[in-house]
Amino acid sequence: MRKFMVAGAAAFLLMQPLSALSGPQPAPSAADCEQIKQAVATYGYAAARKFAVIHYGKDAASYGDRCLTKKDKAKG
Q1: DSSP for 9-71?
Q2: Could you tell me which residues come within 8 angstroms of residue 61 by beta carbon, excluding any fewer than 6 positions away?
Q3: Most exposed: 1, 6, 57, 62, by fewest CB within 10 Å?
Q4: Cα dihedral 34/37/38/44 (nearest 10)
Q5: Is the Cα dihedral 27, 31, 37, 39 positive or negative?
Q6: What is the pLDDT of residue 69?
Q7: Per-residue pLDDT for 28 more than 70?
Q8: How many domains does the chain fold into?
């Protein structure tokens, strides 16, 4: 019985991060935005976005887009 309870608790705890990802994403922090803007300034918007999509996925790239203005995107 104890093993069943431990297995159930472990499964519950392992699923918590996955359920947190399915909800709406919070706004990027100031530190995140600063890092994203530096990458765009260094490599250009297209290259920075392509890197984000390849390494972190489309959701991360759209998360980063929230930090950028139309002016930032035009630089790339």
Answers
A1: HHHHHHHHHHHHHTSPPPPPPHHHHHHHHHHHHHH-HHHHHHHHHHHH-HHHHHHHHTT--HH
A2: 49, 52, 53
A3: 1
A4: 170
A5: negative
A6: 74
A7: yes
A8: 1
